[in-house]
Structures are given as C-alpha cells and as structure tokens.
Predict the 3D structure of the following.
Amino acid sequence: MLSILIPTYNYTCYQLVYDLHLQAERLGIPYEILVMEDGSRSQVDIIANHKIAELTNCQHIQRKENIGLAATRNELAKMARYDWILIIDSDATVEAPDFLEKYCSYMQQGKVVMGGLYHQEKNDNPHVTLRFKYEKQADRYRDAATRNRRPHSQLSCFNIMLHKPTFLQILFDEDCTEYGYEDALFGVELKKRGIDILHIDNPLRHDGLDTNEAFLHKSETALRTLKKLNGKMQGLSHVENTYKKIEKLHLAWAMRLFHLLFAGLIRRNLLSRTPSLFLFSVYKLGYYATL
C-alpha cells in the first residue's frame, strides 16, 4: 500500500522513522520505510540511524558515495514495493497523530498529494537567523488554500505522496547534482504532462535549519544550479525572471558592478543576528548576475 522514502545526509532521523512506524503499525496497513544515507560522513548520525533496521518493515541503506538528493529519491522510488510512495526529508518531525491516516484517505483523489511544512514559532539560536527568518516569511503562504491557487509552482517534496507509476514516468532531474531546484523542476514536468497536484493541510515540522553561513552557501549553490539549467524552469524562478527584465533594460552590467562593490557589506548583514530579507534578495540577484 505505502512505501515511505527518506533520503538523509549527515542527519539523525531515527525518531522520525520511529514515529512514522508507530502510526503505520496502528493503522494496520501494508507499508515499508526505506532510509538511504546519501554518502553521509558523520559516523554519529550513521550509527544512530542503524537502529532503524531493528524496526519492523524498516530498512537503513548506506551509499558510500554522495549522488545528490534528486538521484537518491529516484533510487528509493525504484526500490519501493508499493504503489503509493511518501517522500519525506530526514529533518522533519511528525506532530499530528493522524498524519499517515490523513494521507491514506486521499489516495483515491489524486496522483500527487502534497502535505506541506511549517516551522516553530520561535528559535533562539543566533546562528540560524537568516534561514529561520526566510522560512517564517514563507510559512505565511504555505497553507493548502494558498498553495492550490498555483499548485505546480508551489511544489515542495519535503513531504509529498505520489502514485509510484506516475512518479516513475517523470523522476527527478538528476542534472541537479548539487543543492536546489529539483523540486521546482519536478513541478514543471508535472504541469507539462497535465498531472494535477492536490495540496492538503497535512504538514510536517521542518527542524533542520542551516546556520547563516551554510544557508548563504546553499543559496549560492542553488543559483549556480539555476544557471546550469538554462531556462528549464520555464518562468517559475523569480530570480531568473527579474534578471531577464534587467537584461532587457541593458542594466545587467550595473547589477554585476553593484554586487562586486557591495557583496561583502551585504554578506556581513546576512551573517549577523539581524539579517535583512530584502538584502538577501538583492544579494541573490547580484550573485546570479555575476555567473
């Protein structure tokens, strides 16, 4: 009935698997939970995750080399035994006691069902202020009603259920070997093929917040990925769309110059305890302009 697929990299996800396992056992459905270490280097996390294999219908799979999130999700889906797959990121936390039950009730209503995500109301860690501020702003638009207005452009595979035969027709784009855009590209492909996405309010809490420096690095990596995709996003990237408008005005040179002159100053703000999301947007646009 349901294969739950969890890719992980240097993260302990035993509690997540344990909570999902308990819910599946309580439902009494045929299920499996597959966790794949994508070349994890942290022995602490790997050893903690070893206990997953002790749980009924659960597997802990280790890959020695890192192949990226897109390829790992694809590999897990090909291994899955059941016709419905539930893809969950390893830094999620289950709080709703009926999380799996709710997904099961939607199996006949759509080929792609997305549950959503949210974050804690407060976070006192001064080292994750940029990511936390960014995510809390995005949380305002993550309810199902808002996501259903533009279903394909609001796709996140942090917590999503799909009909396996449908997924295997598309798969994630393995050109996304680094961080960023594999989810958005999957949404583009679903739209091209006329496959509907049903957004529901069945969120998981996202707990794996990056430090300011790590998030800034990830954002730069994602922008390099966007550049390599060379138009595959088909107008769904705000940064790419804005840059094209600047190019049409013949002002791309000014954007590059601005970034070269002020990037260091902006970075100091973004790495501080009080980062500006406006400056973050300016930084990303300037960085993209220099690629």
In short: Residues 252-270 form the longest helix (19 residues).
